[in-house]
Amino acid sequence: MTPTNFQSLCTFLKKRSGLVLTADKAYLAESRLSPVARRLGHGSLDALAESLRTGRSPTLELAVIEAMATNETSFFRDKVPFERLRSLVIPRLIEARASSKRLNIWCAAASTGQEPYSVAMVLKELEPQLHGWRIDVLATDISPAVLEKARSGVYSQFEVQRGLPIQQLVKHFTQEGEVWRISADLRGLVRYRELNLLDEFSGLGQFDIVFCRNVLIYFDRDTKVDVLGRLAKSLSSDGYLVLGAAESVIGLNDALRALPDERGLYQLDQGERTAKKPLKTATG
User: Fold this and answer.
1) What are the residue ranges of CATH 3.40.50.150 in the chain?
2) What crossing angle do the helices spanning 58-68 and 45-54 adopt, rounded to 10°?
3) Three-state SS string across 94-113, please?
4) What is the mean pLDDT of residues 49-61?
5) CA atoms within 13 A of residue 8's CA, in its CB half-sphere
6) How far, in Å, CA of 35 to CA of 32, rounded?
7) Is the pLDDT score of 225 beyond 70?
8) What distance in Å separates the CA atoms of residue 188 and residue 137, rounded to the nearest whole number?
């Protein structure tokens, strides 16, 4: 790919998805986009880039974004966020929401569903304490392809072996030949929706818990500032934002504060919490 076409590709990805592709990652473009070029009838990556530049093919644009997105995920990835969810976050919210018995959770950049289904499994563990509660788990992603897989709830042997405890596998999955299908009751706990984090999402409402892990690392500073600012506004006054272990709000957002000794877990600072408007529930 010529330098001009590579730069054009970088500009497209940044504008449409927030992904920052630098020169040292050019090999990723070649390895991930070559199959796209062949599938869609482009003779070379340069031909693909030139067609992309015309802006006349939504199919090509979506295929490029999906190919370049990093959909690395696994059940109970990094473990600690889910342990905190089980032992700290949900118990606190159960106490705070005792009168309304309503809990809104958002998994942004949900990929193929392992994260929201892991959240759903934690909720199932805490079902006795949540009896009679109305719980909404929204999972979003920019890619229709990964959302389709997430909705199906079907995973390979390799996928269920990555992070999923055997007890959870036996309890919540049924083997169908060489694949495993998650139970209908867990699938029913999660609703999926296509969403680009660069787009306005205030219409989703406000949430008690927002997972947005391992997404900001792919954005430049200005995009991080923008997305974090809008995520902060999506939190209820005592809600929790969960970021990846390598991500931080330091120098990017003053409305959020890290919980002491709880890396990756954030709440609105006291001033923001005092000024926060009454909770608006999430909508479908």
Assistant:
1) 80-275
2) 120
3) HHHCCCCCEEEEEECCCCCC
4) 89
5) 17
6) 7
7) yes
8) 10
Show the tokens assigned to 61.
């644009």
This prediction's pTM: 0.88
The count of other CB atoms within 10 Å of the CB of residue 201 is 19
CATH ID of 3-68, from 1.10.10.10, 1.10.155.10, 3.20.10.10, 3.40.50.2300: 1.10.155.10
> d(Cα 228, Cα 225) in Å, to the nearest integer?
5
pLDDT(284) > 50: no
Residues carrying CATH 1.10.155.10, the chain? 3-68
Q: Which residues are catalytic?
A: 32, 141
What are the CA-CA distances from residue 58 to residues 34, 225, 259 (Å)?
18, 28, 42
> Which architecture characterizes domain 80-275 according to CATH?
3-Layer(aba) Sandwich (3.40)
Enter the DSSP assignment of 217: G
Task: Please report, to the nearest 10 degrees, the dihedral formed by the alpha carbons of residues 28, 54, 196, 75 taken in order.
Answer: -30
Q: What is the mean pLDDT of residues 97-107?
A: 97
- Rounded distance between C-alpha atoms, residue 52 and residue 64, angstroms: 9
Query: Per-residue pLDDT tens for 24-33?
Result: 888 888 999 9
Residue located via tokens 């010529």: 2
Six token digits for residue 9: 């590709």
pLDDT for the residue numbered 273 = 61
